[in-house]
């Protein structure tokens, strides 16, 4: 029996699916895992989600959403809040004491009288005296007076918006000014703030004390991610993001609090590790570069050109895998003055990532310009590499990442080359390695490294020291020479190997 708004993957897990309005095209729908293989549980959960979806789409705020990830995040928040309330309700029911049956044969126990409460007058802490001559009347007046004064203090202390409301405004501001334009950035940072909101006291931010702020910091340090407590450096990013939201609220006069000032999390930066000469030798002598049949435990059905070029490009430019995979034919350029060939990155994880990076001699020696000219002769004006498809979560990175980083049921290329793959290793290791090489072996400062890799350039033909900017970058980048023999790495040989394999 089909359950409305759901579909089922081959693993048996149910997913919810809700259609988006036409204005969100090309994103057509929102999909959420129901985290169950049971039809009964899936039915209950999807009906709950459907109610939240209906209330969200009918709300006045729905027209203000301009990003599908905002809607998905809000829907998840509503669902998680309902689940948390249900768990608390179930917990209260379980902890309720069992009703004790009255025993008519057991006489009631006489309660001792507290004579200290029988007094002739009552004096409040602020000096106010209640003395009507009747102890009961004095106590009644005192209780009313105490409630009024406490309510007055509470009202003065907690006026203003809650942290959840502040985060919602802060997130909308970030989306509107396109600071969080990248879907992954939005998903990650808004998710972090939503986690913090669950850890913080459920009261107006103006009512937070310094102890509340310190408790939030300690709670951040204990956040779990994939079954492990996050590292201090990651926790510090959570706290800095929270303080940025608090400062935004103060600047916009939404709140007025200083309890988070000077609050920090200290921790050593995690050693990300780098690739050694042995690793480079293994990677560039694998089946792709030796032009031999893939092992049976790897067995890709089709060999694509990106398998040859992306590891080489990432190794000698420091590109992220998505940047290399997303290259288009028009992104290969030549400086008209210095004649230096360079990549133009138009779509990157960050704004500074949009840059120009020289093509290293190791890439050119492998026959890159021959490959580029072949693509142009075929009339291809879009993607530089075949076999790469767009994914809403990972953009262009999914296909090459699955092949290289062992994200599939079979062994990835990296594991096949170096054996056991340490946790967190992948194509990003090339980026860490080239940065480490420039810092330690070429003795370049971080600002010079950023300029060399293109993070800060505004023009290609600008002049510096008698040479163009891109020429200076090329000179520095070509000083990176890893201790690995690439004489056998040739596009013409690989092209023949690829055609033979795919035509079997």
List the helices and strands and how they pair.
Layout: E1 6-8, E2 14-19, E3 29-33, H1 39-58, H2 68-95, E4 122-123, E5 129-130, H3 135-157, H4 163-176, H5 183-199, H6 210-221, E6 224-225, E7 228-229, H7 232-251, H8 277-283, H9 287-290, H10 306-317, H11 321-325, E8 332-334, E9 341-344, E10 356-358, H12 361-365, H13 368-377, H14 398-404, H15 413-418, H16 428-440, H17 446-452, E11 463-464, E12 467-468, H18 469-477, H19 491-502
Antiparallel strand pairs: 1-2, 2-3, 4-5, 6-7, 8-9, 9-10, 11-12
Helix pairs in contact: 1-2, 2-5, 4-5, 10-16
Keywords:
504 residues, mainly alpha, three-stranded antiparallel sheet, 19 helices
Describe the structure.
The chain is mainly alpha-helical. The chain has four domains: 6-59 and 67-82, no CATH class; 122-157, no CATH class; 163-251; 277-502, hpI Integrase, Chain A, CATH 1.10.443. The chain is built from 19 helices and twelve strands. The protein has helices at residues 39-58, 68-95, 135-157, 163-176, 183-199, 210-221, 232-251, 277-283, 287-290, 306-317, 321-325, 361-365, 368-377, 398-404, 413-418, 428-440, 446-452, 469-477, 491-502, and strands at residues 6-8, 14-19, 29-33, 122-123, 129-130, 224-225, 228-229, 332-334, 341-344, 356-358, 463-464, 467-468. The protein has a three-stranded antiparallel β-sheet, with helices on one face. Strands 8-9-10 form a three-stranded antiparallel β-sheet. A two-stranded antiparallel ribbon has the order 4-5. Residues 113-119, 152-158 and 456-466 have low confidence and may be disordered.
């Amino acid at each position: 029996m089909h359950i409305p708004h759901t579909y089922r993957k081959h693993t048996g897990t149910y997913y919810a699916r809700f259609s988006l309005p036409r204005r969100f095209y090309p994103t057509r729908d929102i999909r959420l895992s129901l985290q169950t293989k049971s039809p009964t549980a899936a039915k209950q959960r999807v009906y709950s989600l459907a109610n939240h979806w209906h209330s969200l789409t009918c709300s006045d705020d729905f027209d203000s959403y301009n990003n599908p990830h905002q809607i998905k995040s809000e829907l998840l928040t509503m669902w998680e809040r309902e689940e948390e309330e249900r768990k608390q309700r179930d917990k209260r029911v379980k902890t309720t004491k069992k009703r004790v049956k009255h025993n008519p044969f057991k006489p009631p126990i006489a309660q001792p009288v507290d004579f200290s409460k029988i007094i002739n007058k009552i004096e409040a802490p602020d000096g106010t005296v209640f003395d009507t001559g009747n102890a009961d009347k004095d106590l009644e007046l005192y209780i009313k007076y105490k409630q009024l004064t406490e309510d007055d203090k509470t009202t003065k202390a907690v006026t203003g918006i809650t942290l959840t409301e502040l985060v919602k405004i802060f997130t909308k501001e970030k989306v509107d000014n396109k600071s969080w334009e990248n879907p992954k950035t939005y998903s990650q940072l808004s998710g972090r703030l939503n986690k913090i909101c669950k850890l913080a006291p459920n009261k107006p931010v103006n009512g937070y004390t310094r102890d509340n702020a310190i408790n939030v910091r300690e709670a951040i340090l204990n956040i779990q991610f994939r079954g492990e407590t996050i590292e201090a450096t990651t926790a510090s990013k959570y706290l800095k993001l929270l303080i940025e939201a608090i400062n935004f609220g103060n600047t916009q006069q939404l709140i007025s609090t200083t309890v988070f000032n000077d609050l920090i999390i200290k921790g050593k930066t995690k050693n990300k590790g780098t690739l050694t000469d042995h690793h480079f030798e293994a990677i560039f002598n694998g089946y792709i570069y030796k032009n031999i049949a893939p092992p049976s435990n790897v067995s890709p059905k089709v060999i694509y050109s990106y398998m040859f070029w992306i590891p080489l490009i990432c190794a000698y430019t420091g590109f992220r895998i998505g940047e290399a995979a997303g290259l288009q034919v028009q992104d290969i350029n030549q400086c008209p003055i210095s004649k230096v060939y360079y990549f133009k990155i138009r779509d990157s994880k960050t704004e500074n990532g949009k840059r120009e990076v020289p093509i290293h001699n190791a890439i050119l020696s492998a026959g890159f310009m021959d490959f580029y000219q072949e693509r142009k002769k075929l009339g291809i004006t879009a993607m530089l590499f075949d076999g790469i498809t767009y994914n809403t979560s990972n953009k262009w990175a999914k296909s090459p990442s699955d092949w290289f980083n062992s994200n599939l049921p079979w062994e990835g290329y990296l594991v096949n080359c170096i054996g056991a793959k340490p946790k967190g290793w992948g194509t990003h290791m090339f980026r860490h390695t080239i940065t480490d090489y420039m810092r330690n072996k070429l003795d370049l400062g971080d600002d010079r490294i950023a300029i060399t890799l293109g993070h800060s350039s505004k023009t290609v033909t600008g002049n510096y020291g008698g040479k163009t900017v891109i020429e200076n970058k090329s000179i520095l980048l070509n000083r990176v020479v890893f201790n690995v023999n690439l004489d056998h790495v040739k596009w013409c040989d690989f092209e023949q190997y690829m055609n033979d394999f795919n035509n079997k």
